[in-house]
Amino acid sequence: MTMKEFGFGADIDALLRGILDDAPIPTVQKLVVENTLSSAAERGVTQLQAVQAVKQFAAEQMDPELYEDAEVAEAKVTPQSNDEPIFTDSEIDTTRVPMPVFTTAEIMDRIDIRSFATLVTLQTSRWHAKVKDRQASKDAATTAGADAAAFETRKRLLVGADELLKKIHQSIDVARTAHYQMTLPWSMKGMEDQGKRIGGRLLPNTLFMEYTTVMAKAKSDMDAALDAFVPAYPGLIKVAQSKLGTRFDPREYPNVSAIRTHFGLSFDFQPIPAGDDFKGLAATQCEALADALNRRTATMLENAMQDAWVRLHEVVSHAAERFSSPDKMFHYTLVEKLRDTVKLLKHLNVTGDKRIEYVRKFVEKNLTMHGVTEIKEDAALRKQLGAAAHHALNMMKEMP
Description:
By secondary structure, the chain is of the alpha+beta class. The chain is built from 14 helices and 6 strands. A 4-stranded antiparallel beta sheet has the order 4-5-1-6, with helices on both faces. The longest helix has 42 residues, at 283-324. The chain is globular. The two termini are 14 Å apart. The relative contact order is 0.12.
């Protein structure tokens, strides 16, 4: 039941303006709810349907006070069970993300995305020190009396001597994690499409300095780890040889003089292409190419904003699941991820979408202010946080 179906239709703005004229601001939301409840019967709907219509309207208008008052009224007019458990199971399908439309023609006309973001590409390479051992696979199959294709054996080339190698990998992993956290996909592939979204990613300009600092630190750490690994490499091979026995094969190892070239970490920036970049062609051709590129840009920006929305929904869904069930375990990383997400979304919301910012602020205020130990030791607080997480999911579900 929407406000239009409830009977207000296009007059809802006039109704709200009338209340604003006649009442002090603190009582506006209460009067809207009371008006809706009192007029429910004459409009042929239940009070529950009426107040749910107001709640939906509040979500559409991103009015937190009206939404909260509507929720209180909804709770009062919703039939209650006699036995209310302390913790309740969610009625929300947290696996399905409600997806609003973020990029309209109006938005594309209003903003120049190049003023807010840049494309960045991260390139990494590494030697994993692992290879398939086909002979070992055959031997295992023969011993088991199995088909030759039933086994796949991987050999660790630096078994027992890979601690220095792991430090190199850790530096690269830090860079990759930060790259994906601080950027949004810039791709024609949407959330529902199959396949990898490769190529440059959208980096908000407000994160540029932080991004380059993190990447430079990761690169420096990788180089330092390589400085320790390269001279030790010949000795590490000898240690591994003693561990591998007859399966040692020196041909499987990169040359000592070239081992450093098997690792790499670099990044570069590119401007976001725009329709007016086309020059030197006939006007009609430039216009056609510009229109095609602008349509692609709108699609890629929409996909980027959807990614930001999904990130927020996923972390809140996980919090709702864990906080609402007293028997489910959670770790400090849950709260840290909530905090990191709301912090990053300040920057990743490149179009300034009010819905994302509204939910982000709600999550920041209601789900990030307590430590893990405090939450685990206080059942009432945990229940409160679970309810807040479900409240946020409800808002995301009802926002257009």
